[in-house]
Amino acid sequence: MEKQQLALIIPAAGSGERLGGDVPKPYLKIAGKTILELSLLKFKQVPGLGEVIVSTSKNFMAQTEVLLNKIFPELKTYVVEGGKERQDSIRNALNKISGKTGLVAVHDAVRPFVAVVDIEKCVDEAARWGGAVLATRAKDTIKVSGPDLEIVQTPNRKNLWQAQTPQIFWAALIREAYDNAEKYNIYGSDDSSLVEQVGGKVVLVEGSDKNFKITYPLDLKIAEYLAKSGEL
Ligand code: C5P
Fold it and tell me: Cα 17 to the chain's mean position, in Å?
């Protein structure tokens, strides 16, 4: 089966509040490169990549354009302005995708340790089913809380997974999901939840804890350690 053209959307418009610095997380450097560049370099190795769209804040648009031209001189690339929520940032990027694209991958700028083989597994499963999400099995027991922090439910851990990115979908399906979310003003904490709302089939692909999201100061320390140990 011939590979479908893949478009990559990278939301990179977060403020970096939780890391406590002025520079947004994707623009912090590890091993001499920005976290955004490290994430983009992983996807450069994925067959079938046809276009790349990065959603970022106004102040970082020019530097992101330079970066995209450097990494992907042969591809169509765009930089768009991000929105208030991650979902708004992705919506703006989705509007740029060309009709030739069969699959759309969304990957957080701040997950530079994703393994290329895991991205490829996710592409294959998404092409087959409609959607695929990299995920890891829940390590801890997860509790559901009520308004007074009382535990109201303890779901069976065997069925619980932590969703990561990339999350990859048929282009028509993610477009439908985002149109539906806009129409009914639905906000989800990931892309899959929006696709699930329109009845799309999304499967889990078991990935690795190394594909963690650099969110808090401790994550940055771990990222620096992993980079020094040759994990990039
Ligand atoms: O804040 P969160 O951990 O969900 O961020 C995940 C990714 O989404 C990050 O790469 C961040 O830059 C991006 N994001 C965005 N627009 C927002 C919020 C987050 O592009 N409004």
Answer: 19
